[in-house]
UniProtKB/TrEMBL annotation:
InterPro entries the UniProt entry points to: Metal_Hydrolase (IPR032466), Pept_M19 (IPR008257)
Top-tier EC class: hydrolase
MF annotations from Gene Ontology: metal ion binding; metallodipeptidase activity
Name this polypeptide is given: Dipeptidase
Gene Ontology, cellular component aspect: side of membrane
Keyword terms: Dipeptidase, Disulfide bond, Glycoprotein, GPI-anchor, Hydrolase, Lipoprotein, Membrane, Metal-binding, Metalloprotease, Protease, Transmembrane, Transmembrane helix, Zinc
Length: 452
């Protein structure tokens, strides 16, 4: 879940150059010439382009996109439908029909059936018809509960309620979905024409500083954990601490992971749970990659070099991801794809494609994937409004010259490689005892924790 309520300070904001303010008659003549040429180009372009175009790109590009998505499962790293289920129905799964337009249905749900919104409502962008039209092969469904529940009832709300509800609807619509917990399972579900449904836990604030809770999440089917959401935990800093002092600084002096946090990473390696570094601070990214003996992912983050929001991945960290053989799954959210130094009036599909170009140019096509963040953000670029639009993105990448093999890597092969590596590392570590280190909770002020 990502919200516009998150403040962001942008650095390197560009001021308009003084040169553009000069006005000469020469410039005027050039401008008139350019306008005439532009009008001609548009007129000719429309005459040729319209018959060829289905979704704003040529048939050849769209045909390649559709072929890729038919032959390779499109694996998306992050969708917040579970959070929508919670905010709109308090996890009463029977109140929505995922076979029909969810946006429509949720508009009619009674207020008393909803949970109290902390953020303005985000209307759902996901349902079975839209996922099918979008040719989604596998989806990580994010288990998320607001950071305000940390050290209160986060575990009840997330583990014991939202995860259960997610299992309920995956099983209820078993002609569309199949619960999957392995890399082979993704391919089997894809062959059976089911959307492989994987579960990810979005935030270490839902662990209650307890290793056993991490293991319980694994037993419940979670195959990644995002180390933090947009709040610090006593053992790991979030991206917010790239902008202000860490919340737990006073007790811990950490700017990334502390020693217990590093053990969480190692326990995830031992379990075969993927380390997800979306939402964490830059230092937590660095510390986690150094602590992990398996590849890591960013389940829904874009390129900081193109749009300098701290939810995105900075260039030096991209180099670490390449070395780690990990994966950055590009987020489509307007707030993370359209900002300085490439800020435009409105976010566009083309800008999302620029993030793919950027990461591909920096570290290669083997380390980039898709993590759109549908149902977790209020606004998506024109052309990528909901979960039905993935083919348009792949057609745009094809138009930019991406080859079939490259599109297949981005769609799913890169993720499958990472997941297999994580499973192999788990197998290699088989026989190692679990980490049972206790967090020194007495160093924290936790009024809702009992001491017996
Ligand atoms: C779903 O319903 C919303 C709200 O009425 C509408 O704006 C949207 O176009 C619909 N989407 C589809 C795919 O039918
Ligand atoms: C927070 O930690 C940093 C790094 O150790 C230190 O420089 C700073 O003084 C600390 N701030 C507070 C408020 O404790
Ligand atoms: C935090 O840093 C200060 C100053 O270096 C040190 O005195 C204190 O013991 C540290 N606290 C913890 C919990 O590590
Ligand atoms: C941006 O979006 C607004 C609202 O939809 C629209 O009025 C405006 O013309 C758009 N601007 C550009 C440059 O496309």
């Amino acid at each position: 879940m990502d919200t516009f309520a998150d403040p962001q300070v942008n650095i390197n904001e560009k001021k308009p150059s003084i040169k553009f303010q000069q006005k000469t008659s020469v410039n005027k003549r050039i401008i008139i010439g350019v306008v005439i040429v532009a009008v001609l180009v548009v007129v000719i372009g429309v005459a040729i382009g319209v018959p060829l175009s289905r979704r704003g790109t040529s048939d050849a590009n769209m045909n390649l996109a559709l072929k890729v998505l038919r032959e390779t499962p499109l694996i998306d790293g992050h969708n917040d439908l579970p959070w929508q289920m919670r905010q709109f129905t308090r996890n009463q799964v029977h109140k929505v029909n995922l076979r029909e337009n969810t946006t429509m249905q949720w508009l009619h749900i009674k207020k008393e059936d909803m949970s109290e919104p902390k953020y303005p409502r985000i209307y759902p962008q996901t349902d079975i018809p839209r996922l099918k039209k979008g040719m989604v092969g596998a989806q990580f469904w994010a288990i998320f509960v607001d950071c305000g529940s940390q050290d209160k009832d986060a575990i009840r709300q997330s583990a014991l309620d939202t995860t259960a509800a997610t299992h309920t609807w995956i099983n209820q619509y078993d002609d569309a979905f199949r619960l999957v917990t392995t890399s082979d399972g993704i391919l089997e579900a894809f062959k059976a024409n089911r959307i492989a449904s994987l579960i990810g836990l979005e935030g270490g604030h839902m662990l209650g500083n307890t290793m056993g809770v991490l293991r319980t999440f694994y037993l419940l089917g979670c195959r990644y954990m995002t180390i933090t959401h947009s709040c610090d935990t006593p053992w790991a800093d979030s991206w917010k601490s790239d902008l202000k002092p860490s919340e737990y600084n006073s007790t811990n002096n950490i700017t990334g992971l502390n020693e217990w946090g590093k053990k969480v990473i190692k326990e995830m390696n031992r379990l075969g749970m993927i380390v997800d570094l979306s939402h964490v601070s830059k230092q937590t990214m660095i510390d986690s990659i150094e602590a992990s003996s398996a590849p890591v992912i960013f389940s829904h983050s874009s390129a900081f070099g193109y749009c300098n929001h701290y939810r995105n991945v900075q260039d030096d960290v991209l180099q670490m991801v390449k070395k780690n053989k990990g994966l950055v799954m590009v987020n489509f959210y307007n707030g993370y794809i359209n900002c300085p130094p490439n800020k435009k009036e409105n976010a566009t599909l083309s800008q999302v494609a620029e993030h793919f170009d950027y990461i591909k140019n920096k570290i290669g096509v083997d380390y980039v994937g898709v993590g759109a963040d549908y149902d977790g953000v209020p606004q998506m670029p024109v052309g990528l409004e909901d979960a039905s639009t993935y083919p348009d993105l792949f057609a745009e990448l094809a138009r930019r010259g991406y080859k079939e093999e490259e599109l297949k890597k981005i769609a799913g092969e890169n993720f499958l490689r990472v997941f297999k590596d994580v499973e192999n590392e788990r197998d290699r570590l088989k026989g190692n005892p679990p980490f049972e280190d206790l967090y020194p909770v007495e160093s924290l002020n936790l009024p809702c924790n009992t001491n017996f």
